[in-house]
Specification:
This protein has 717 residues and is an alpha+beta fold. Helix content is 28%, strand content 22%. The strands form 7 sheets. It has a 7-stranded mixed sheet. The chain has a 5-stranded mixed sheet with strand order 13-21-20-19-14. It has a 4-stranded mixed sheet with strand order 1-2-3-4. Helix 3 packs parallel to helix 5, helix 11 packs parallel to helix 12 and helix 15 runs parallel beside helix 19. 54% of the residues are buried.
């Protein structure tokens, strides 16, 4: 399986084989039009099919990537549509489409170069095909809006007429790209390509999929992390309506297969199961919190960022400030629960599923099926939310294949219940952080230590990537200058380290990853330091940001827009936050009020993002707004707690999302400083909570140092 999950290699634009589309596997067999190259298919009617390797889960990557290809292709945007190639085809074609992973806000920024070259190469091939047909030099021809023109004579032809001939040409080796300043399609706020299907109900999600002869499965795994199935009594439910089979799923789960999912679920609810609860049956959030607290002063820790001698500087400082912050486990809580459909035979296994990483899903399929990857494939479907849950770990794919393998030749659609989705998540890691700062007599920050104690996502998902006990992802937003997620302040004496503590709760990459809590820890403590120094929080930050112009630019942008330094509306108070993550610089200023009885209202948030290049500004604005929905929901309400080894929250009644009435007005500032490609789906979420928490202090005089805010007494101090 190393081949299916290897890092992206060279991209062979001219290696042509027919593309087997998802529709073919579902029973339809449309004629496949000529392929110009791996990225572009053009039909005789000039319809342009752009292939998208990354996943669409509401973030707009599908449209953004299509814009980039179409820009270089010089095609008619009104005739553009898209399709997903499969990871099996990618494997067969020497990974011509590169990386299928869609996470870490990498969908556009890490594929923009080669998809643009795919579009540019296709345009050059189409022009050459027309020039050859006219027996004229290609240099005398130009392309625009899917029409090729021979400039000296005015002759024209369309892409659809020459596509087949173009596809037989050798791809060009030198593929120049446009200067973004000359963009006509990319860089514009165009309507998303997937909106119509989503609004008229024609979009097929994984839970909607039907195949001939399909049966449905409901599954239940041991609710205690690390537990297994000891026994189950299949005979007790075998006679219930619609039930076909009761089967084990690995060593920790049981599934009921029936003619409808509801019948499968009702039978599963009635199925007697005895669990072997394993070593974690007594695990609790309280015990984990105590363990993490010990790590705040433990002698063993791995350094993430160091400058000077922070401890000595703090010891000699005129004033010492200390605080401890905490961040809980959280669930992704995708609107669409985990689901997949599998068809297994002795010589082939196919899976249909919403996934953030088709190649990882293919690897899981092959491993569970017992077949080589070349005899497997995964048909990717739009996701009803991902947020990281459908990326690194494909436990649900493993389950559906194991079920289908016990019923050869029968398509099996497995859907998790909401309760199963909550209990079997891959959770945002739990951490605590102790921060100690030293100020000189003038109130300048001379030293800072940050000790993070808690869970490592990498240790729980890719343990082979831990080197010398260090998880580099832990330090997102806190790295030395020059990295993807560096700290925005120059502090002469600095020590940031991590005492790893991994509880039984399995971790996962949750939208924003470790940038979420790190921004809270740093930005709220910077506010504490500013208050202790008797300085304005904006001025205090600016003094530390001279060497960080891009960080400072987004901070200044929100401060100017909100009117920092001028009085807020009566009864309202403001808080700032900034960070750098996923390649982008972000800042926010929140405006809140707190009533006499402690009720918090978040009225307004101004957010600035510098992502270098903006492919679709409207979609970036939507992502910024969505970040605040997700981030504020987490900050106000959401935590996963464990008692007796199992998650206590099983549905939205105990794990609520942000309500519409709680959502503030969001004003987005998009800065395109150029020269780099940053992500937009994740960075802004990290400044949601700290901006609000700092505003709460301004309103009440109280510091909230642990989330969710629902536990805080916000009545004025």
């Amino acid at each position: 399986m190393a081949t299916a999950t290897a890092a992206a290699g060279a991209f062979t634009l001219g290696f042509h084989v027919p593309l087997t589309r998802s529709a073919v596997a579902q029973g339809a067999a449309p004629a496949i039009p000529p392929e110009v190259n791996a990225w572009v298919v053009i039909r005789p009617d000039d319809t342009v099919v752009i292939r998208i390797a990354r996943s669409e889960m509401g973030q707009g990557t599908l449209t953004g990537l299509a814009q980039l290809v179409a820009e270089e292709l010089e095609c008619d945007w009104a005739k553009v549509t898209t399709e997903y190639p499969t990871p099996g085809q990618n494997l067969a074609r020497r990974r011509v489409w590169g990386n299928f992973s869609t996470g870490g806000s990498r969908g556009i920024r890490e594929s923009q170069d080669y998809v643009r070259k795919g579009g540019a190469a296709a345009r050059m091939m189409l022009v050459q095909a027309a020039a050859t047909a006219w027996n004229v030099p290609a240099a005398e021809c130009s392309a625009a809006n899917s029409v090729i023109t021979h400039t000296p004579t005015g002759r024209t032809t369309t892409y659809g007429r020459v596509a087949e001939a173009a596809g037989r040409l050798t791809p060009p080796e030198n593929v120049p790209l446009k200067d973004p300043r000359a963009w006509k399609i990319a860089g514009k706020s165009v309507a998303r390509l997937d909106t119509v299907e989503k609004t008229n109900g024609s979009q097929v999600y994984g839970m909607d999929l039907t195949l001939p002869g399909m049966l449905n499965a409901a599954v239940r795994a041991c609710p205690i992390f690390g537990g297994k199935v000891r026994s189950f009594d299949a005979a007790a439910v075998q006679g219930m309506p619609g039930v076909k089979r009761v089967v084990p799923v690995g060593d920790n789960a049981v599934a009921v297969v029936a003619d409808t999912w509801w019948r499968a679920k009702k039978a599963l609810d009635a199925l007697p199961i005895v669990w072997d609860e394993g070593p974690n049956a007594n695990a609790s959030s309280e015990a984990v919190a105590a363990w993490l607290k010990e790590g705040l002063d433990a002698p063993e820790a791995v350094v993430g960022n160091r400058a000077g001698d922070a401890r000595a500087a703090i010891t000699g400082a005129a004033k010492r400030i200390e605080a401890v912050y905490a961040y809980p486990h959280q669930n992704h809580a995708c609107m669409e629960v985990m689901n997949a459909t599998a068809l297994w035979t002795a010589d082939r296994c196919e899976v249909w599923t919403p996934t953030q990483n088709g190649e990882a899903a293919l690897a899981a399929t092959a491993a569970a099926s017992g077949l080589p990857a070349t005899q497997c494939d995964v048909h990717k479907i739009h996701l009803g939310g991902g947020f990281g849950r459908r990326g690194a770990v494909h436990d649900w794919v493993t389950q559906v294949v194991l079920i289908a393998k016990q019923m050869p030749g029968t398509p099996i659609k497995m859907i998790w219940s909401r309760e199963e989705d909550m209990l079997q998540g891959r959770f945002h890691p739990v951490t605590q952080c102790k921060l100690v700062g030293g100020l000189d007599a003038q109130g300048n920050l001379v030293g800072l230590t940050m000790r993070i104690s808690g869970q490592s996502i990498v240790a729980g998902t890719f343990p082979q990537n831990i080197r010398d006990g260090r998880d580099p992802v832990v330090f997102q937003g806190l790295n030395a200058s020059g990295g993807e997620a560096d700290i925005g302040y120059t502090i002469p004496n600095l020590l940031i380290d991590h005492a790893m503590r991994n509880p039984s709760v399995p971790p996962g990459f949750w939208r924003g990853v470790n940038l979420n809590q790190n921004a809270i820890y740093l930005e709220c403590f910077i506010d504490e330091l500013a208050h202790a120094a008797g300085k304005d929080p904006l001025a205090f930050r600016r003094a530390l940001m001279t060497n960080h112009p891009k960080h400072l630019a987004v901070l200044n942008a929100v401060a100017e827009r909100i009117g920092w330094g001028t009085p807020a509306p009566a009864g309202r108070f403001r808080g700032l936050a900034q960070t750098h993550g996923f390649g982008s610089y972000v800042a926010a200023c929140a405006e809140v009020s707190v009533s006499n009885d402690g009720k918090l209202s978040i009225h307004r948030i101004v957010a600035a993002t510098d992502c270098g290049h903006a492919v679709n500004p409207q979609q970036i604005e939507a992502q910024i707004e969505g970040s605040f929905v997700y981030g504020l929901g987490a900050a106000l309400h959401q935590e996963i707690t464990v008692k007796g080894g199992r998650v206590e929250q099983e549905n939205f009644d105990t794990y609520p999302s942000l309500m519409l009435a709680e959502m503030p007005a969001v004003e987005s500032i998009i800065i395109t400083s150029g020269g780099f490609w940053g992500g937009v789906g994740e960075p802004t979420i990290a400044v949601a909570a700290p901006a609000v928490m700092n505003a709460i202090f301004a309103a009440t005089g109280k510091r909230v140092r642990s989330l969710p805010l629902k536990h805080a007494d916000l009545r004025r101090a």
